[in-house]
Amino acid sequence: xxxxxxxxxxxxxxxxxxxxxxxxxxxxxxxxxxxxxxxxxxxxxxxxxxxxxxxxxxxxxxxxxxxxxxxxxxxxxxxxxxxxxxxxxxxxxxxxxxxxxxxxxxxxxxxxxxxxxxxxxxxxxxxxxxxxxxxxxxxxxxxxxxxxxxxxxxxxxxxxxxxxxxxxxxxxxxxxxxxxxxxxxxxxxxxxxxxxxxxxxxxxxxxxxxxxx
Length: 213
Hints:
Elements (H helix, E strand, L loop, with lengths): L11 E4 L8 H5 L16 E2 L12 H17 L8 E11 L5 E4 L6 E6 L10 E4 L27 E4 L5 E6 L4 E3 L8 E10 L2 E2 L8 E2 L3
């Protein structure tokens, strides 16, 4: 049997230049919600500041990420959008025994995560789930009992391990999460959302939406 994979969802992975290590202390020093009453086993903890990439000391890093978003948007998603603006950005920690349930990012076009901790390879992976199109019939494949469960055409969940100093970009509608952190170390990352600057759609196609930034 020949199998044709139709319309895969591209995810972009970029290795950040070593010179950008100078920005890591600025990410590390941001205050985190570490109150045990707030920290959630299903969400982890995050920075109080949800606009971290707007900090003046991270301006260069913001511009670098924005360039990569444009590159991913153009070359992987084939979108004709020239400029993107990073909206919210926050540091996320997953302490031991914490996870992040599968979720999506509303009000965003492209989302991403930057990993910098030295122990990133031992920490929980980021897990993507196949999106389901609503139809009259929804047939769920068998799990584990099927001998083809390692076949990429069958899998509905894919884990990705990233090396420290990597950025992963993906469409914001793509469901993703983080499995429980079973290590003794914190899982550290910077998450962010982005939208095109000034407008969405096109006037000639009657899909244009203008806005001010």
